[in-house]
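// run 5 | inverse folding | seed 20
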């Protein structure tokens, strides 16, 4: 699983961040900070964890990844293009009427998108349903879902947490993008102990350190009668570029030509 070196991983992810910014600038819409906080997680999953066949997205033995925080879709699109699910032309046409890539993933249009998401709180529910179906069929496929920490305010998240634990969905792994967006609305003092009280197997990692992410997943036993798993990934919104980090005006901002040059300059320094 840990077949790539850390230096190569970081170089690739900076390249993804440049691609994300270009994509959003070209489309005139999107969320750069929300995509930057999760790109290291998604890159780790597709690069070293998930079983998939981009030439056959509906492959029966594939693992599933559902991006519940759909407004971070540009990160998913960048990785799907890297692995051949979609084309560079699709990336160029993001946000256009003739294109397949919108502000949120649409599973009826985007190969590799397992669910249409964006209405927060629905992705984990969908992932649980898939995990249950696979368990009933005694299939070994793994199911991953990524939610934002602000999404944890949705009641469906906690309904799903209780049901998944009661059904012993050991093939389900939730990842929380803990970029502290939740603190802007409703503080969540101890997420780890709360999820443990719901009967989940809890891991905490630096969400920008793929080694930690992958070590956590390697530690899991995905047998069908074990506890569901959760990774609380501590992240920084807008990670990678000094002036996009944090909870300021960049949430839905489109970079100017000068800002785009500065983004590319900062992200190219480590290459």
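// decoded
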């Amino acid at each position: 699983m840990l077949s790539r070196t850390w230096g190569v991983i970081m170089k690739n992810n900076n390249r993804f961040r440049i691609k994300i910014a270009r994509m959003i600038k070209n489309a005139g819409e999107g969320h750069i900070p929300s995509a930057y906080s999760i790109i290291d997680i998604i890159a780790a999953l597709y690069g070293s964890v998930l079983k998939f066949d981009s030439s056959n997205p509906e492959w029966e033995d594939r693992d599933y990844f559902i991006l519940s925080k759909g407004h971070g879709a540009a990160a998913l699109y960048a990785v799907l293009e890297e692995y051949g699910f979609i084309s560079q032309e699709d990336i160029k046409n993001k946000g256009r009427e003739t294109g397949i890539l919108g502000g949120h993933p649409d599973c009826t249009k985007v190969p590799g998108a397992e669910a249409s998401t964006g209405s927060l709180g629905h992705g984990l529910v969908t992932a649980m349903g898939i995990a249950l179906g696979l368990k009933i069929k005694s299939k070994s496929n793994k199911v991953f879902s990524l939610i934002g920490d602000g999404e944890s305010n949705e009641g469906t998240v906690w309904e799903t947490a209780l049901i998944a634990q009661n059904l012993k969905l050991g093939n389900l792994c939730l990842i929380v993008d803990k970029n502290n967006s939740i603190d802007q609305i409703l503080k969540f003092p101890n997420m780890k102990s709360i999820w443990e009280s719901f009967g989940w197997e809890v891991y905490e990692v630096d969400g920008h350190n793929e080694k930690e992410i992958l070590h956590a997943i390697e530690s899991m036993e995905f047998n069908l009668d074990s506890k569901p798993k959760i990774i609380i990934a501590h992240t920084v919104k807008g990670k990678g570029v000094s002036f996009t980090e944090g909870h300021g005006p960049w949430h839905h901002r489109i970079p100017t030509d000068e800002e785009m040059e500065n983004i590319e300059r900062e992200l190219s320094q480590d290459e």
